[in-house]
Amino acid sequence: MAEPAADAGSIQRKLRLLMELRRAGIADARVLGAIEKTPRERFVLSAFADQAYENVALPIDHGQTISQPYVVALMTEKLELGARHKMLEIGTGSGYQTAILARLARRVFTIERHRELLRQAEGRLAELRLHNVVFRFGDGSKGWPEQVPFDRVIVTAAAAEVPPALIDGLAPGGLLVAPVGGDRRDQQLLRVRRTDNGFLTEDLGLVRFVPLVTGPPVRPEAGNA
Question: Residue 219: its pLDDT value, please?
């Protein structure tokens, strides 16, 4: 089934957003192209659909957020994703970042601790015919041991430190991008590169993310799913 055509107003808002991202320093044509092809209005709550192409974070279900487009673009660009890369995402959320990654990587493995968010994201990506994504309901801080190593890892929630399982799961030469900081007002976006001699960490600036929750996810009670 073909995707419904975007209205003229939505197209104009998306073009303005892309121009804003370029002015802010996002230069990777593949990243900008993936953002252009991904209809953000499908990933936000209907009450916020008219704000889908504003450069702001927006609330989604379960107290989570869909990140500001600039932050999505920055994190994606800093991953230096190649078409043959195997990617791990911690925090599927609405699936918007997942969709961007799926257009750039060979395969994306994504973990979400809210089952309903995961179900919604699966449906959205299926509608967009992005079939190179594998979904898991669980605790993202533990990584995906059966699938290590990963060429790239992205974390979309902040912890006091990067979970060791995620760093240990990086392939040689691999990159991880994650927000770090126990205080939501004092979080740094870090990029960690695995080298032959260990790990190199780069500070990419201040960000603000919801906290990374660890431990077994709460399964919905029967009848409340």
Answer: 62
Closest CA to 27 of 99, 66, 62, 78: 78
Domains within the chain, CATH numbers bracketed: 8-207 (3.40.50.150)
pLDDT grade, residue 5 (50/70/90)?
Answer: low
Predicted model pTM = 0.91
Q: Which one from 46, 67, 94, 141 is the annotated catalytic residue?
A: 67
User: What is the distance between the alpha carbons of residues 31 and 40, in angstroms, rounded to a whole number?
Assistant: 14
Q: Tokens for 94?
A: 């609405």
Query: Are 90 and 67 within 8 A, CB to CB?
Result: no
Q: Is 141 a catalytic residue?
A: no
Q: Distance of CA 189 to CAs 37, 48, 59, 92, 202, Å? A: 26, 26, 21, 18, 9
